[in-house]
UniProtKB/TrEMBL annotation:
InterPro entries: cNMP-bd_dom, cNMP-bd_dom_sf, HTH_CRP, RmlC-like_jellyroll, WH_DNA-bd_sf. Residues 133-197 form the HTH crp-type domain. Pfam families: cNMP_binding, HTH_Crp_2. CDD domains: CAP_ED. One of its GO terms (biological process) is regulation of DNA-templated transcription. SMART domains: cNMP. The keyword S-adenosyl-L-methionine does not apply. Signal peptide: none annotated. It comes from Kineothrix alysoides. This is CRP-like cAMP-binding protein. Residues 37-101 form the Cyclic nucleotide-binding domain.
Length: 205
């Protein structure tokens, strides 16, 4: 993500610290977006429940990520389902105030436009990777991105919905990584990354 300390210092002074507990919702579905959030820690999943009963996870937002930034430039007609995966500490911004700041400061506007462009590219790459790389490599990248201090504990169901693969396939690859000594399952925590170097090598295959 583009992170310019000069620009973010201008933006962050308008923010108010908030916390959201695990399993809570930051946005209420079917309500207008009046707030924008910058995550300092924790993670949030954004998803859609389809009419056929299946679920698609559109994004997993973690530290240094924004929520609601699209509404700075367009009116989102509906709010997607969202849930806090790990306790969130964030900065909350009034949307109108932040939108006015974008109108008055071209550098701030460019910062958000660049962030949105990077997010779009990341989603495009993810779709391309799903067609061209085995799950083992994609999962290694995913674990490295979402681990927190060497601990990884995203539910397998969320991974399968995010990567559009079966739960059984995710379970098989996770088990394989444990057998290779890359991950170690620890009750109550999730998975400890036992061999960071091997995981990084797997990602780079």
């Amino acid at each position: 993500m583009i992170f310019d300390n000069d620009i973010t210092s201008i933006i962050f002074k308008y923010g108010t610290k908030r916390t959201f507990a695990k399993d809570s919702n930051i946005y209420k579905v079917n309500s207008g977006i009046t707030r924008c959030y910058f995550l300092l820690s924790g993670s949030v999943k954004i998803y859609i429940d389809h009419k056929n009963g299946r679920r698609s996870i559109l994004d997993l937002v973690g530290s240094n990520g924004w929520l609601g930034e699209l509404s700075l430039f367009c009116n989102e007609s509906d709010i997607k389902e969202n849930k806090v995966l790990h306790d969130v500490e964030c900065l909350e911004f009034d949307m109108d105030e932040l939108r006015k700041l974008c109108e008055e400061n071209a550098k701030v506007s460019f910062y958000f436009a660049s962030y949105i462009a990077e997010k779009l590219l990341a989603r495009s790459y993810r779709m391309s990777e799903s067609l061209n790389y085995p799950l083992e490599i994609r999962l290694a990248s995913f674990i490295l991105l979402h681990q927190q201090k060497g601990v990884y504990n995203i539910p397998h169901t969320d991974i399968s919905e995010y990567m559009n693969v079966s739960y059984r396939h995710v379970l098989y690859v996770i088990k394989k990584l444990c057998e290779q000594g890359i991950l170690t399952k620890e009750k109550g925590k999730g998975y400890i990354i036992s061999d960071m170097e091997k995981l990084e090598q797997l990602q780079d295959k």
